[in-house]
TrEMBL record:
Its EC number is 3.2.1.8. It catalyses: Endohydrolysis of (1->4)-beta-D-xylosidic linkages in xylans. Pathway: Glycan degradation; xylan degradation. Pfam families: Glyco_hydro_11. InterPro entries: ConA-like_dom_sf, GH11/12, GH11_dom, Glyco_hydro_11. It comes from Extremus antarcticus. GO terms for cellular component: extracellular region. This is Endo-1,4-beta-xylanase. The active site is at E103 (nucleophile), E194 (proton donor). One of its GO terms (molecular function) is endo-1,4-beta-xylanase activity. It comes from the Eukaryota. Residues 26-207 form the GH11 domain. One of its GO terms (biological process) is xylan catabolic process.
Length: 207
C-alpha cells in the first residue's frame, strides 16, 4: 500500500516535537476512504486548528504556539500494518501496538529537535535509500491510548532528510523486533505531523 502526501507552507521555526501520546482521538471505523483509510488521529492541546476529510484522505492544520504545548495529528488506518508509504517533509509514520503497549515513529524529516535525544541507541537500519538512526525509550506514567500508563517507544530517524519518497515500514519493524518490538496486535497507524513550538501551516493528502 502506498500513501501520497504533500506538505506546504511550513515555516523554519517549526520543530519536531518530543513524543506525546493522544487522548480520546476521533475514530472513523467505516472503511470509506481511499485504500481503506478510516482513522483520524487528533491530539491537540488547543494550540492550533485541525480539519480532516477521511473520504478524501486529507487533513490540514495550522499552529501558533507562544507557550509550550504539543499536537500529533494525521489520517490513516485502524489497524496498523506493514505498508509502503510515500511521504513529504516533516512527516512521520506514527502508530501504536496494543500489547505490549508500544508507541512508534518512522521520522522522515525533523527540525532542530532530535527525537532520539536521551534515548537508548540501537544502531542504524538502512531502508529506502538512507540509513536511519534507531533508538528506544520508556515513557513512565504518560498519556497513552489507554489513558495514563507506562509504555515503550521505538524511533527510526532518517539521516538524509527528505520531502518525498517511500517508507517501507516492515524494514523498521523487523529491525526493532531484535530489540523487543512486537509487530502484531496493532492499534492505529497514521502519517502524522508533530510540533511543539513555532508556527506554520501544513496540508496533507493520503490516497
Amino acid at each position: 500500500m502506498k500513501v501520497f502526501a504533500t506538505l506546504t507552507g511550513l515555516m523554519a521555526a517549526s520543530v519536531f516535537a518530543a513524543p506525546v501520546a493522544e487522548a480520546d482521538p476521533e475514530t472513523e471505523l467505516e472503511k470509506r476512504g481511499p485504500n481503506g483509510i478510516n482513522y483520524v488521529q487528533n491530539y491537540n492541546s488547543n494550540l492550533g486548528a485541525f480539519s480532516s476529510d477521511v473520504n478524501a484522505g486529507t487533513f490540514s492544520m495550522y499552529w501558533d504556539q507562544g507557550v509550550n504545548g504539543d499536537f500529533v495529528v494525521g489520517v490513516g488506518w485502524w489497524t496498523g500494518a506493514a505498508r509502503a508509504a510515500n511521504s513529504a517533509s516533516y512527516l512521520a509514520v506514527y502508530g501504536w501496538i496494543n500489547n505490549p503497549q508500544t508507541e512508534y515513529y518512522i521520522v522522515e524529516n525533523t527540525g532542530n529537535y532530535n527525537p532520539c535525544s536521551g534515548l537508548q541507541s540501537l544502531g542504524t537500519v538502512t531502508s529506502d535509500g538512507s540509513a536511519y538512526n534507531v533508538c528506544k525509550g520508556t515513557r513512565y506514567n504518560q498519556p497513552s491510548i489507554t489513558g495514563t500508563s507506562t509504555f515503550t517507544q521505538f524511533f527510526s530517524v532518517r539521516q538524509n532528510k527528505r520531502s518525498s519518497g517511500t517508507v517501507t515500514t516492515s524494514n523498521h519493524f523487523s529491525y526493532w523486533a531484535r530489540n523487543g518490538f512486537s509487530a502484531s496486535n496493532f492499534n492505529f497507524q497514521v502519517l502524522a505531523v508533530e510540533a511543539f513550538s513555532g508556527n506554520g501551516h501544513a496540508s496533507f493528502s493520503v490516497s
